[in-house]
Design a protein that fits this description.
About 40% of the residues lie in helices and about 15% in strands. By secondary structure, the chain is α/β, with parallel strands linked by helices. It has one domain: Nucleotidyltransferase, domain 5 (2-Layer Sandwich).
């Protein structure tokens, strides 16, 4: 990782006097099932070197994501949080607005209030904290990359637990994305309460829910 590239926005914020810089990202915009989960990571000018191992969570293997996440959980000096927007909220206000809502909740759940927000690809309107929006931020900002790892690991864990309740859909593997196996199960069993009714193909035509038990 080019650490200079991945700290350019954080360095700029620190130079302007913002010490508590928070990266924000979400996981779960594309799936047809499950919530959207946001991660918030507070990055200070002095940070442990292992944080530089982070990258866009989609580029990292599950083993690497879990290892980094374990290190985050074991450290008492790091500040991070998560926020969730439910399937019902996604269907009511759309996935973009639900992603912003999850990010706002992630910020609210931090134990320390940030001075500055660096947000992946969106602008949060319901906050008075100074911010900037960065396109492909999970690939260019260390704080957003760390937030993306938090969001991805937390959402994957949620989908694995939901898979135990509804095993036919393979969520432990596809995490709610519309894979062929997932769509076949949807056709056979119908949607669960965790499917997004506003997403294709559920929006295309009505399904009737057929309990698996």
């Amino acid at each position: 990782m080019d650490s200079a590239l991945h700290l350019q926005y954080e360095n700029k914020a620190w130079e302007e006097g913002y010490e508590k810089v928070c990266g924000l990202d979400e996981a779960g915009r594309g799936p047809i099932a499950g919530p959207v989960v946001a991660g918030a990571f507070l990055l200070f000018p002095h940070y442990p070197s292992f944080l530089l191992e982070a990258d866009d969570s989609k580029k990292l293997s599950e083993i690497t994501r879990q290892r980094i996440f374990s290190l985050l959980r074991e450290s008492d000096d790091l500040v991070w949080g998560t926020g969730i927007a439910t399937v019902e909220e996604i269907d009511q206000i759309n996935i973009y607005q639900a992603s912003c809502l999850a990010m706002q909740r992630a910020v609210s759940n931090l134990q320390v209030r940030p001075d500055y927000l660096i947000v992946d690809a969106v602008c949060l309107k319901e906050t008075n904290i100074p911010q900037c929006s960065v396109t492909r931020g999970d690939q260019t900002c260390l704080s957003i990359a760390l937030a993306s790892v938090v969001a991805k690991v937390m959402r994957d864990d949620i989908m694995k637990k939901l898979a135990e309740e509804y095993p036919a859909y393979g969520w432990e593997k596809n995490k709610g994305y519309p894979t062929a196996a997932h769509l076949d199960a949807l056709e056979k069993y119908g949607p669960t309460p965790y499917h997004r009714r506003s997403f294709y193909p559920l929006k295309k035509r009505p399904f009737s829910f057929k309990p698996l038990r």
